[in-house]
Amino acid sequence: MTKITPLNTAEHSGISIIESNDFSRFSSEHLIPVVAQEFVSLATEFPIVFVKNAETGRFTPVAMMGVKKGINLYCQDSSWRTGVTPLGFSNAPLSLMKTSEQSDEVMVCIDQSSHLVVDAGGHRLFNDNKEQSDYLKARTQALLDIASFNQQTASICQLFTSLKLLEPMQLSVKLINNEQAINIDGVYVVDKKRLNELSDEDFLSLKNRGVLPLIYAHLLSLQQLSRLIEKQNRYDLSL
């Protein structure tokens, strides 16, 4: 259970936050939302694909961390053994929330039920004068940066949609411990044929917005599917 409340000095002046590479809270999430700014770094480890919201029709980029739904192969225990980490993994126990539906102003909230919240021994959120600590200021700025990155990523996905660049990925995977192949569906990738057939004007619009490196990183990341399948086989054999 979570207990998320707005951060304030009256309630939280005496608590601290510890940092941990235990991301086992994501153990059942095989698709992790990411932002465009981390495509290049994450592409060295994870396939980056897109998923479509059935209600809005909008696309979101995600890092595939499992072949089977409900199993994140990287977060089954408390150890994170990979050199790259999605930005969103480091948010907890802090988050941003709008002050009202009509306002663009946000406030910092904290999940008081998180194991990362401690009474002593961690990074203080407020100093003795009940002013924000440098640590809290840095964490708040990181949250604001990610919020901005999310907006920019949504805009890029809308651009891909307008140019009809995204197509469903059809992939059937045969695992060692499964008699039948597993179909990976519900994910989308950039259509290379469509990309190459863009008009000069549309292609230049991608170039001028700095989007081309992101597309190439995404396409290159699909080579990591073989790594993911091998990891799934090792996981299945260990059970």
**Numbering strands along the chain, what is their spatial order in the largest sheet?**
3-5-4-13-10
How many beta-strand segments? 13
Coarse structural class: alpha+beta
Our Rg estimate from Cα atoms comes to 20 Å
The largest pleated sheet is described as: 5 strands, antiparallel
Shape: globular
- Following the backbone from N to C, one meets helices and strands in this order, namely EHEEHEEEEEEHEEEEHHHH
- Residue runs with pLDDT of under 50 for 5 or more positions: none
Mean pLDDT score: 94
Compute the separation of the termini in Å.
28 Å
Instruction: Enumerate how many helices there are, as a single number.
Output: 7
Helix content: 25-40%
Strand content: 15-25%
